[in-house]
Amino acid sequence: MTINLDAVDFSKTIVITDLHYGMRNNSKQHNTWCTEFLEFVMARAKELNIRTLLFLGDWSHNRNNVNISTLNYSHNGMKLLNNSFDNVIMLLGNHDLYFRDTLELHSIPYAQDFPNIHLIDKITTVKDFCFVPWLVGDDYKKIQTIKQPYLFCHAEIAKFRMNAHVEMPDHGGLNAEHFQHQKLVFSGHFHKRQRKGNICYIGNAFPHNYADVFDDDRGLMIWSPGEEPIFEKWPGAPKYRVYNLTEALQDPTSLIDNKTFVRITVDCDLTYERPLHFGAALAGRSDLFKTFSNYGLPLGEAFQLRDDLLGVFGDPTITGKPSGDDLREGKRTVLIALTMEQLTVNQQQTLEQALGDPTISEQQIDELQRLIRDCGAVDRVEKLITELGAQAISALQDPKLDTKIATALEQMAIIATQRSL
């Protein structure tokens, strides 16, 4: 395909890269963000009167299949760019290719149907500029012969970071020394924005996953020949974060919004109380912390007591565990402690010898269950569960608590204390 770029205005350009339409299993959310990002780019171009856009590769994500929904989003994205810019120079990236090691077949042939979009599928030079799509085979050796001072590419250059944690090793292929003739090299492919000497990875459009955690330096680049690039973030970009639970609980509204993906590391004991505190903090209702403590703490105890009973008497067809499993594991629960208080010395010895023995028979389990039930320990635990459940439900009388929430929490308390699983 022959492209004439002589009439393109390179005096001021917007440069973006690595949208990856179709990422996250052709997620509608991701595809929508791609389009919203392009709308942000177009708005900035209009404000700055920039008529040329450079795209440095990986418009698509999936190499070997096309989802119909993603195809529509992708086609519409190109249409938006075509109608907003006089010229869009679009490089093929490795994710755009059907085969990673050849440029012959790719996922965006329809780009050629838009008159203002120039698809770069081979090394192309014009004036002081060179455009290099994904390099296959030994094509990287041609880089040393390129004399244009400004080079735009989608390249895998050794010793640059693939993300914040992984550096691209040097396998004897493309490296920084190949670009000795260039004043500046701008590349897509590695999503992390970074620069060494004359080589700059501009960073992808917006953070895509947890490889980008706490790394929000993505967006667009504004550049004119002879000047240093200017980078701008997309204000609507998603963010990826990792927090300890105690940290997140301190002031969650300052850490998390509806475009923040968060992984929480549990660094404290979890009860019914703490998740309720977390939800209240997210809703800005710290005034409900005491109410939720008064509800969650006794309910958590009741839940554990019911678990103790199920661990000894649970129906294996419902619980999925052998009957008396806690006895074989030797768990020292409240149920066992209350049992020990009521047994004779000989009975205590029988129970002590059996606890923690994984080889005890079903008949021995039956005998221990009868011992625990006959001594009154089960009735005492049931009474505790009832009292604690009632205590939890009474905390829901707080007038500050929405009626619908109180009703839902009451139902949860009933399920937690009367469950058979």
Describe this structure in words.
A hairpin with a 2-residue loop joins strand 5 and strand 6. It is elongated, with a radius of gyration of 32 Å. The chain has two domains: 13-237, Metallo-dependent phosphatases (Purple Acid Phosphatase, chain A, domain 2, 4-Layer Sandwich); 285-418, Farnesyl Diphosphate Synthase. Helices cover 38% and strands 14% of the residues. The protein has 421 residues and is an alpha/beta fold. Helix 2 runs parallel beside helix 3, helix 7 (289-313) runs antiparallel to helix 13 and helix 13 runs antiparallel to helix 14 (403-418).
Shape: elongated
Poorly predicted ranges (pLDDT <50, ≥5 residues)? Answer: none
Largest beta sheet: what is the strand line-up? Answer: 4-3-2-1-11-12
The H/E string reads EHHEHEEEEEEEEEEEHHEHHHHHHHHH
Mean pLDDT: 92
CATH C-level label of the largest domain: Alpha Beta
CATH topology of the largest domain: Purple Acid Phosphatase, chain A, domain 2
CATH architecture annotation name of the largest domain: 4-Layer Sandwich
